[in-house]
Amino acid sequence: MTFIDILGYKALLKTRRAEEIANVVKALRNFTAGDGDESKPPSRSDEIRLYTQAFSESVSDAVVRVRTIDTQSQDGPFAYELIDLMHAIVECVNRGILIRGGMTIGPVYIDENGKGPIFGEGMVRAYQIEEEEAVYPRIMIDEDALTAYLNDETLWQDGAFDGYEARMVRPFIAVADDGSFSSTICEPPVPASSIRG
C-alpha cells in the first residue's frame, strides 16, 4: 500500500495555469498507475489473484496504490512495488515533478477487480507516513513493513529470501540520516548487512 502526492502542490495552484497543473497531475497518474488498472478483469475464479498486481486510485494530486499480496503465485510483491515506485520517482523527477509518499503493509479493502473504493488501516498508515514523516521528496517505507518483508515468505519471490531476492531489493531501499527507510534515488542504498544479513 502506497500513498503518493506532489510536493509543493499548493504553490503550483497559485503559480501555474490550470492546463499546466492538469498536465502535471496526469503525468503523476500515468507514472504511478498500477499494472492491474488496465488489465481485463478475470473471467474465472481460478484466475483471480494469480499474480501480484498493483491497482491505483487518484484524486487531485494524490495517488493511492494497492498491491495484492495474497496470490496463488509467490512472485515477490514487495520487490515489485519498490521497482514500480523507483520508476515513478525517476519519471516524475525527469519532468520536474517532486513526489513524496508512504509505503506500508496492512489491511486494505479493494474489490477483486481492483476497483475502488480503497480504504483500511494500511491506507491510513501510508497517508500518515506521507503527511507527517516523509518531509522531503521520497517515498518513505514504514519500518514495520520492512520488518514484515524480512520475516514473511509470502512477500518473497518463490517464497525464499535468497541472494537473488536480496540483490533485487537492496538497490531500491535507502537509509536517511535519521535512520528511516525510503525508496529513492537521492540517498545511499541500505548496506548489505541491513537486509537480512
Number of helices: 6
SSE string, helix = H, strand = E?
Answer: EHHEEHEHEHHEE
For the record, the CATH class is: Alpha Beta
Oligomer: single chain
Supply Rg: 17 Å
Structural overview:
This protein is an alpha+beta fold. It has one domain: Nucleotide cyclase, GGDEF domain (Alpha-Beta Plaits, 2-Layer Sandwich). The chain has 6 helices and 7 strands; from the N terminus they run βααββαβαβααββ. A 7-stranded mixed sheet has the order 2-3-1-4-5-7-6. Helix 4 links the parallel strand 4 and strand 5 (139-141).
Which key features would you list for this structure?
6 helices, globular, 7-stranded mixed sheet, Alpha-Beta Plaits, alpha+beta, disordered C terminus
Concise account of the structure shown:
The protein has 197 residues and is an alpha+beta fold. It has helices at residues 9-15, 18-32, 77-94, 121-133, 143-151, 163-169, and strands at residues 2-6, 54-59, 62-67, 99-103, 139-141, 174-175, 181-183. It has one domain (2-39, 49-194): 2-Layer Sandwich (Alpha-Beta Plaits).
